[in-house]
Amino acid sequence: QVQLVESGGGSVQAGGSLRLSCAASGYTINRKCMGWFRQAPGKEREWVAAIAIGSGSTAYVDSVSGRFTISRDNAKNTVYLEMNSLTPEDTAMYYCAAGGYQWPCPVRDDYTYWGQGTQVTVSS
To answer: What is the mean pLDDT of the chain?
Structure first.
């Protein structure tokens, strides 16, 4: 069983930064990816970024590329999402997930384990 706990969300002004953390417990090594998704009110949950558990390769949705950085600390079994130059359009509940099937692991239904989410609110 894998458990994921997100933290680091909050409220910031446009142009600001936040770093989200996802602490994983349990056996994650046989999962292909760790991913971050987000869901704004009234919208579908969308893929934001993924990191391959084996190679450490990273991938991003176009709307965050160049602003967000996904990384991992294997010793701490933690995945991070560094978010810079935030805009109000980034406001959403952010979820981390373990699973994935085919790189870059953008398909929500391919993820098996999910955290409870952490809220990010960006004001203009």
So the answer is: 94
